[in-house]
């Protein structure tokens, strides 16, 4: 299941069948982390703006709007933390798969009796 709703063009596909080794090499973690950071900052700015001055034409009480903006501000932090965990777990799994692939493709080690020297 894809948890991202937006993915920058030119980057790896977030689909489950994407080549995770290629994505890890292309800096997908940096793109995902940067996107999450930018979205979190914009979400916090929007929440603070709504707290300071409610949108014109609303019929809700000021206290209700302040509570909603406060919920948006702190609830957004919890959602961002959850998304950061999802990104981290995905990176960790991709890294483990890549390390298993690299280890499996390495040549066998030299015999221990040779002292590490090639004859």
Question: Could you give the topology of this structure?
Answer:
Blueprint: H1 20-25, H2 28-52, H3 62-105
Give your account of this protein's structure.
With 119 residues, the protein is an all-alpha fold. It has a domain at 23-102. It is built from three helices and no strands. The protein has helices at residues 20-25, 28-52, 62-105.
Key phrases:
single chain; 119 residues; mainly alpha
Given helix and strand content, the structural type is mainly alpha
The fraction of residues assigned to DSSP E strands is: under 5%
- Write down the Rg: 23 Å
Oligomer: single chain
Order of helices and strands: HHH
Q: Please give the alpha-carbon distance between the first and last residues.
A: 53 Å
Shape: rod-shaped
Unreliable runs: none
- Tally of separate helices: 3
Major sheet attributes: none
Give a short synopsis of this structure.
With 119 residues, the protein is mainly alpha-helical. It has a domain at 23-102. It has helices at residues 20-25, 28-52, 62-105.
